Amino acid sequence: MKKIKSICCIGAGYVGGPTMAVIAQQCPEIKVIVVDINADRIAQWQTDNLPIYEPGLLEVVKEARGRNLFFSTDIENAIRDSEMIFMSVNTPTKTYGLGKGRAADLKFVELSARKIAEVSTSDKIVVEKSTLPVRTAESIKTILKEHTNGVKFQVLSNPEFLAEGTAVQDLQKPDRVLIGGDQTPEGLQAIEALTDIYAHWIPREQIIQTRLWSSELSKLTANAFLAQRISSINSLTALCEATGADVDEVAYAIGTDSRIGSKFLKASVGFGGSCFQKDILNLVYLCEYFGLPEVAAYWEQVIIMNDYQKKRFATNIIHTLFNTVSGKKIALLGWAFKKDTNDTRESAAIYVADDLLSDLAQVGVYDPQVSADKMYADLNYLQTRPAKENEQMLEVHSNAYDACKDAHAIAIITEWDEFKTLDWQRIFDQMKKPAFLFDGRNILNHSHLREVGFIVKAIGKGAE
Ligand code: UDX
Ligand code: UDX
User: Fold this and answer.
1) Number of H helices, E strands in the chain
2) How far apart are CA 114 and CA 118, in angstroms?
């Protein structure tokens, strides 16, 4: 069988960038070119100031960059010169028209497929890396078929299971790799060609080979199952608060059942990130499309629970602060959707901040990796109020101490490690009294905070 010598990846984002960097590091004999329509992004990948923050990524990039890893905006030549093309463009939820708010917007995927069809002069294996609704490969195949000048295409689905913040680790030691393809001789050959690449560093028994549709659907539903666990434990937080149970103890007791397991049972202010909500909405849309309203409603409830959790957290702050936060400063610690990433897509922080601003609070924010521009863009995107008001009412600080100065309350949104080692006495001394602390992640030592003088409200914990 022919060994792949050249790869191109369209989309230099959170998925494409790290994935290609690790492939290039592990397969020095394969030339890997990452292309993107965004020239700024490509320029940043050439420097030591990478466009995305991931622990360990810079080391991997530095090892392979210039050797067999390249970044470019010349999409056409990269496609032409490569035997295998990964599509890693973003697939946001549609904001218009048919399927608005649910279906995935496949505009970028379609554009990429058309581009590949247009410029290819030799046979290619096209790999879907983006999370896509089931049967997208069908559309890609249709587009590719229309344009061929005798060139043959094979379409594979190879969904990414990396989580942000641990991307490099997840890529280097994945639980499994999933490759779906047509069950024809050519399809099976393409599956083998991609398997061969991963087999450079992953044991073959961890590389799962399936039909195309199974692979596409597995990715959507794996995310739905993970999100469902978080919504399940979060659904218990309100009950714990009402009954005096402690959600961390409950999660521990549940998770030690080996049939259940301990992961993804950490109660929180709500899950965020680019995948969970989008993929579940997609699944819901798919179920409705196939006339399965009960199945659609079942999965939609995971999202409803998550929206409730974000809203409940903000409402709890307002109620506790004597039913009004008007003119009061509230400090938000963390804006990213989880620690160790600068990604803010669907972060609970956006919705909590928005609710507090609607109640006329003054919000002070500190996040170690997220820029002020990003925070304002996130808020403005909701269009709840004019951008100018967001700028007046929300102030971004460069450290936690300034963010908390003169605040009536602090809300922990992201579980950044550095929040655990802050000088809480110093923070308390500079706050308005009574000083409240709402721990949306339960990462702090609450009894210590109470000794300092804070009134602590922890998610899923009744009055202690
Ligand atoms: C990925 C997956 O692709 C998505 O399906 C999954 O659900 C989440 O993760 P991600 O890498 O996080 O997306 O997206 P992003 O960081 O936005 O990167 C996508 C890149 O593709 C961007 O840099 C964008 O400029 C580029 N792009 C987009 C193109 O190069 N061409 C296009 O036509 C569209
Ligand atoms: C997720 C999937 O884990 C990954 O396999 C898939 O490929 C892409 O989507 P990611 O979105 O990067 O990865 O982050 P993840 O670690 O799954 O966290 C998602 C959200 O859930 C975060 O907001 C996180 O804080 C929250 N979460 C996670 C909880 O609230 N509690 C938990 O126990 C775990």
Assistant:
1) 18, 14
2) 6
CA 385 centroid distance within chain? 26
Nearest atom, ligand 2, residue 162 CA? 7
The whole-number pLDDT of residue 377 equals 98
Binding site membership of 88 for ligand 1 (Cβ less than 6 Å): yes
Quote the ligand 1 centre to 264 CA distance (angstroms).
25
The CB of 104 under 6 Å from ligand 1? The reply is no
- Write the DSSP symbol of residue 13: S
The reported pLDDT for the residue numbered 301 is 98
The C-alpha atoms of residue 367 and residue 384 are separated, in whole angstroms, by 22
Q: How many CA atoms lie within 13 A of 416 on its CB side?
A: 23
| Strand partners for 439 | 412, 458
Ligand 1 lined by 163 (C-beta under 6 Å): no
Ligand 1: centre distance to CA 256 (Å): 37
Question: d(Cα 249, Cα 369) in Å, to the nearest integer?
Answer: 31
Contact between 12 and 36 (Cβ < 8 Å): yes
How is residue 201 written in tokens? 């560093």
Q: Which ligand is nearest to the CA of 52?
A: 1
- Rounded CA-CA distance 349/403 in Å is 15
Question: Does residue 237 have its Cβ closer than 6 Å to ligand 1?
Answer: no
Query: Which atom from ligand 1 is nearest to the alpha carbon of 75?
Result: 30
CA distances from 167 to 21, 170, 312 (A): 11, 5, 31
Task: Examine residue 133 and say whether the peptide bond preceding it is cis (omega within 30 degrees of 0).
Answer: no
Q: Phi, psi at residue 383, to the nearest 5°?
A: 60, 35
Ligand positioned closest to the Cα atom of 160: 2
Residue 394 CB neighbours (<10 A): 21
Nearest 5°: the CA angle 166, 255, 206 is 50
Averaged pLDDT, groups of 10, the chain, 464 residues long: 92 96 98 97 97 95 98 97 95 85 84 93 93 75 81 94 94 97 96 98 98 91 96 97 96 97 97 93 91 97 98 98 97 97 96 98 98 98 97 98 98 98 98 98 97 98 77
Q: Give the per-residue pLDDT at 1.
A: 67
Q: Which of 36, 37, 90 to mutate to test the pocket of ligand 1 (most atoms within 8 A of CB)?
A: 90
**How far does the centroid of ligand 1 lie from the alpha carbon of residue 167, in Å?**
15
The ligand 1 atom nearest the CA atom of 87 = 3
